[in-house]
Every structure is written in structure tokens, then in C-alpha cells.
Specification:
- By secondary structure, the protein is α/β, with parallel strands linked by helices.
- It has helices at 10-18, 26-36, 51-63, 79-92, 110-118, 127-135, 152-157, 161-169, 186-195, 226-236, 249-261, 275-286, 320-327, 348-358, and strands at 41-44, 72-75, 100-103, 122-125, 146-149, 176-181, 200-203, 214-220, 242-245, 266-269, 292-295, 310-313, 337-343.
- Strands 3-4-2-5-6-1-7 form a seven-stranded parallel beta sheet, with helices on both faces. A six-stranded parallel beta sheet has the order 8-13-12-9-11-10, with helices on both faces.
- The two termini are 26 Å apart.
- Mean pLDDT is 84; it is low at 206-211 and 382-412.
- Bound molecules: adenosine monophosphate.
- Residues 21, 23-25, 28, 47-53, 304, 306, 332-333 line the site of adenosine monophosphate (AMP).
């Protein structure tokens, strides 16, 4: 079914065409008609499913022409996501006179105040800075008719739910409210029953299942060899672009410096970097100047890095949800991608939790002709080793073909 049959007006269809979209993705097919019909929608969808267009296109279609007070409020957990969603709205709205502004912390107030003064139709914001503007009287939300709570589970993780409630209290009750979240924990359920009216739920894919196109593999390794194994992996894999996830900012800096010393074009993204440093890092990564982005989980969700061919978990994420969010960077929009995870002995409980969460066993793999230090993890490889979870370490062939040899050229 083409976009045209979804009931979007021509001025928005032009924006869709300019964005290069030809056919709607499943979430768009299901959410757009519901939204246009006036329903509050809950979208249970991971990042990479096309959810931004699923809410942006019907909202823009319902707005008509420019008015000075914000009628749309989109709340996002991070600055990067807010900037990305603002760009999507701008792109889709380019054949209308609607105005979009983005509001987030870590930068000055000047440009944001200016935009608010000039009048905007769509406000994309992170909760903290928006509350600051509301307190200072720089903007009001009494004309808001559409609210989107995007990546709601991430906002919960980051402790933003009280701010979200405070903001919603300043919006009129008569409004359309939609919420998008990969998971719906109890706190989000109570937000839903407080903030939404008779919501319709759209679930895309199996909830909690990572992108199907991603090939997962775990590399068991001794702690002392982790950095070396990472270097070796990057040497053997002909990646186009790779994000390496680390648990802490210090580790991210250390790994980035190591990769730099080994002639990788690398940049770092974590919360100690200034806003302009983060923007430079992201821009450089998107335009291919940097091939490796070393990041903490701040970069794990929603960032529109379509070209990422590989995700490497240098550290196993402590929460299974974070694994899904991290690997959401690869295999987006049905492109193939690989997710590699380095695992040391202490990571075992976290790895099992991830496997339970995604409902599949991730194959263990050893690099050919690599001189491994001993780790108890290899015991499971021994003939006669006691059976049991996680089971024998072996390569498993996943549907669609699993790559487990040395370097190869990626399909483009
Ligand atoms: P999102 O989940 O909104 O972050 O979207 C994931 C990626 O899919 C982004 O790169 C979008 O630009 C892309 N995308 C969304 N909808 C479509 C579509 N209908 N056709 C092609 N690409 C799309």
C-alpha cells in the first residue's frame, strides 16, 4: 500500500517523497490511520522500525497552516534524539509553512528563546530544559493538541517521568496523546492510564526481540585480552562503520585512544563531552570522516545512524534492554548488520539475562589462529564438560546465514 492511500495530504506526501521513502513501513501502515482517526496510540516498537514518521506524518497532516503557539509537543529522553526528530519533522514539513523548534539542555538559551518568540507549531524537547523555559515564562503549552512521549522507557530509565508528568499537567486535557516505547514496564503503564484516553496499541515485531536482520555473536575472552581482541576483530572485519559500546566514560576514552594509536578513524560520544563536541562527533561519524564511534549508552537509542554495519559491545550491557537498544544501531530499516559482544567470565549472568530477554541463544565464537589466554569460559568447549547453560561453545548457523570466518567485504 503506498503512502498516498493512507490519507496523507499532498503537501505532506511531497515531503515523504523528498525524504526518499516509497513504501510505508509496517508501523506506519498501522499507526497513521489510527492517528488520523483521532486515537491515542501506544506504539510498542523498537528503534529503527520507522516510528518517527509514523507519528510525524499524521500530526503534520492534521495541523493545517502555521500558528504562533505550539500545538505539538514531542518529548525525547536525549538531546541527540530530540535533534534527530526535529530534523525529521522539518524534512517532512518542508512543503508547508509549519515551524519546528528543538529545545534541550547543554547549550545556551538564546536561539531557543528566539525560536519560541518567533512562534513555532511543533516543539521537540527534552523534559528538563523545557521545564526551565516554562518556569521562565518563555513558552506556554496551553495550545498543545498533540503530545508524543517518545522512547518512554528510556525516559523512565533516566528518571524523567516526574518531569514528564509536570509538563503534561501544563497541557490542555483535550489533546491527542501517543506514547512509543520498546518495553512497557509497570511505571509506563501507570503513566499511560494517567495521561492517555482509550489508547489503541500497535505492536510491531515481537516485543523485546532485537532487529531480525542482525547477526549476533559472542566472543569469550580473558579480561586481560579484551582490548587486544577488539583490535584483532576490527582488523579482520571489513566494517563500513562501527560503534563500540563501553560501560563507562573513562573506558570509552581509553578505548578510543587505543584505536587512534592503531590508525582507526575514531571519535567518542559520552556525557562528559560538550554539546558541540558531541555534534561534531556525530556529524563526522555520519559523513564517514570517522569509521569508529566509541560510545557509552548515551548513543544507544534512536540515533539515526543508518550506515552502521557493526556494533561491538566491548562491555556486556548490564541490562538486557540496553543490549537491544545498542544493537538497534545496526540492522536498521532492514539492512543487514552484525553485533559482536566481548564476554569475560564475570559477564556470564548478564549474557544469560540477555539471551533470555531476546529469546535466543547467541552463538559463541573464537577467532581463528588467535593466541588466546586461558579463561574458564573455554571450559565449556572441552569434550566431556558438564552440560548446562550456556552450553557448549560453538558456532551456530542462524537463519539467513551466519558469518563466522575471517574478513569479508560487506554487501552495500
Ligand atoms: P526510526 O525508527 O523512525 O528512527 O526510523 C529508522 C530509519 O528508517 C530511519 O533512517 C528512517 O529514515 C528510515 N525510514 C523510516 N520510514 C521509512 C520508509 N517508509 N522507507 C524507507 N526508510 C524509512
Amino acid at each position: 500500500m503506498p503512502f498516498k492511500s493512507l490519507g496523507l495530504p499532498e503537501r505532506i506526501l511531497q515531503g515523504v517523497r523528498a525524504a526518499g521513502y516509497t513504501d510505508p513501513m509496517p508501523i506506519q501502515l498501522r499507526v497513521i490511520p489510527l492517528y488520523l482517526g483521532g486515537a491515542d496510540v501506544i506504539g510498542c516498537a523498537q528503534t529503527g522500525t520507522g516510528k518517527t514518521a509514523a507519528f510525524a506524518l499524521p500530526i503534520l497532516s492534521l495541523l493545517g497552516s502555521h500558528q504562533p503557539r505550539p500545538r505539538v509537543l514531542v518529548l525525547e529522553p536525549t538531546r541527540e534524539l530530540a535533534a534527530q526528530v526535529e530534523t525529521a519533522f522539518r524534512d517532512f514539513a518542508r512543503f508547508t509553512d509549519l515551524r519546528v523548534a528543538v529545545i534541550y539542555g547543554g547549550v545556551g538559551y538564546g536561539r531557543q528563546n528566539q525560536a519560541l518568540k518567533e512562534g513555532v507549531d511543533i516543539l521537540v524537547a527534552t523534559p528538563g530544559r523545557l521545564l526551565d523555559h516554562l518556569r521562565q515564562g518563555n513558552c506556554r503549552l496551553d495550545a498543545v493538541r498533540h503530545v508524543i512521549l517518545d522512547e518512554a522507557d528510556r525516559m523512565l530509565d533516566m528518571g524523567f517521568l516526574p518531569d514528564v508528568r509536570r509538563i503534561l499537567e501544563k497541557c490542555p486535557r483535550e489533546r491527542q496523546t501517543s506514547l512509543f516505547s520498546a518495553t512497557i514496564p509497570p511505571q509506563i503503564e501507570s503513566l499511560i492510564s494517567w495521561a492517555m484516553k482509550k489508547p489503541q496499541t500497535v505492536e510491531i515485531g515481537v516485543r523485546r526481540s532485537p532487529a531480525e536482520t542482525v547477526k549476533h555473536v559472542i566472543y569469550p575472552v580473558a579480561e586481560s585480552q579484551k582490548s587486544d581482541l577488539l583490535l584483532e576483530l576490527l582488523k579482520r572485519v571489513n566494517y563500513d562503520s562501527v560503534i563500540v559500546f563501553c560501560r563507562t566514560k573513562d573506558r570509552a576514552d581509553r578505548i578510543a585512544n587505543l584505536l587512534k594509536r592503531h590508525q582507526h578513524a575514531v571519535t567518542v560520544l559520552h556525557s562528559n563531552r560538550t554539546q558541540s563536541e558531541r555534534e561534531l562527533a556525530l556529524r563526522g561519524f555520519r559523513d564517514g570522516r570517522f569509521e569508529v564511534l566509541v560510545a557509552t549508552d548515551i548513543a544507544a537509542r534512536g540515533l539515526d545512524l543508518v550506515e552502521v554495519s557493526h556494533v561491538v559491545n566491548f562491555d556486556v550491557p548490564q541490562h538486557p534492554e540496553d543490549y537491544v537498544h545498542r544493537i538497534g544501531r545496526t540492522g536498521r530499516a532492514m539492512a543487514a548488520g552484525d553485533a559482536f559482544t566481548l564476554m569475560v567470565a564475570e559477564d556470564a549472568p548478564h549474557v544469560f539475562a540477555i539471551e533470555r530477554f531476546i529469546g535466543q541463544k547467541i552463538p559463541r565464537q573464537k577467532l581463528d589462529a588467535y593466541s588466546y589466554d586461558y579463561t574458564a569460559l573455554f571450559e565449556q568447549d572441552r569434550p566431556g564438560a558438564p552440560a548446562g547453560y550456556p552450553g557448549k561453545v560453538r558456532a551456530v548457523r542462524l537463519s539467513g546465514g551466519y558469518y563466522c570466518g575471517p574478513a569479508r567485504r560487506r554487501r552495500r
